[in-house]
Amino acid sequence: MIYEKEKRYIIPFGDVPTDRAEMPEISVDERRGNFTEVETGFPEEMAVKEAKRCLSCRRCLGCALCWAECKPEAIDFSIPDQELALDFDVVVVAAGQDNSFHPLSAKLGYGQYPDVIVDLQFERMLSPTGPTKGMVLSPLDGRIPASVALVQGHPEDDESQILSSLVFGVNAAVIALHNTQDLDVTLVSPICPMFKENYLSSAENIPGLTIIPGSPVSVEKSDKAQPLTLTYSYNSEESRQAFDLIVVLTKPKISREMASLNKKLQKK
Questions:
Q1: Helices 159-179 and 119-126: angle between axes, nearest 10 degrees
Q2: Between the N and C ends of the chain, which has fewer C-beta atoms within 10 Å?
Q3: Could you tell me which of 24, 22, 80, 18 has the C-alpha nearest to residue 55?
Q4: Do residues 167 and 239 share a domain?
């Protein structure tokens, strides 16, 4: 741990996967006799690559902002590493940010369009402690969307998965409608018998929420400035509707790392 200045620490890492990109600069001759900016900034391709590098390590960068902002002073960088043997009746293994889900159809546009996100991202967005403090904003341009679609990512799945997705979708819609004015939310998913029996009538009476008992087919976008076009099947017919933001409901799965950790804990 290297002390830089008051209230900041820099922690060096010897296993950084990719070196930092070098900032382009004008030549020495071009600098003479003027006040031209020496650093020209990253080209778009290099800037994107550098941003991905910065976000890839998934660990503490040593900025010490947590320490500076922690009022109870619960964070102490001077504590040496140590192993503790503690006894517990139950151990809950939490995935944290390493949430995994089964692959989605490429036709739904996730990973292709920035304004197509998954339910885990939407849940984080709706949190009052999230990046947008609970406000629904488009990752594409930061604007408040007028219309949001929640679509079932695995419409052919079993009833338990469909039920949990539907319950999540309705709850997320309620929070989104409460946090964002003039928002319309549409939920597109097959309706399983249990949801229809216990929840559908109440969900259909939520102002601002429309439920379509269909299956999403594809998501397309002709231009960056245009809204997304969702194609879905309903009553054996395909329909198309435009949305500003689309949230795909996923099917969670246990990652290999979590499964390995679970086995280690069970052995002990």
A1: 30
A2: C
A3: 18
A4: yes
Q: Look at residue 7 and tell me whether its pLDDT is greater than 60.
A: no
Task: Tell me the pLDDT band of 90, cut-offs 50, 70 and 90.
Answer: confident
pLDDT band at residue 136 using 50, 70 and 90 as cut-offs: very high
257 pLDDT exceeds 80? Answer: no
Measure the CA angle with vertex 32, ends 29 and 38; round to 5°. Answer: 80
Beta partners for 116? 246
How far is residue 182's CA from residue 230's CA, in Å, rounded to a whole number? Answer: 21
Q: Are residues 61 and 124 in the same domain?
A: no
- The length of the chain is 268
Last residue of a domain, one of 25, 53, 69: 69
Share of the chain above pLDDT 90, in %: 46
Asked whether 245 and 117 are in contact (CB, 8 A), the reply is yes
Please tell me the distance from the alpha carbon of residue 23 to that of residue 46, in angstroms, as a whole number.
Answer: 10
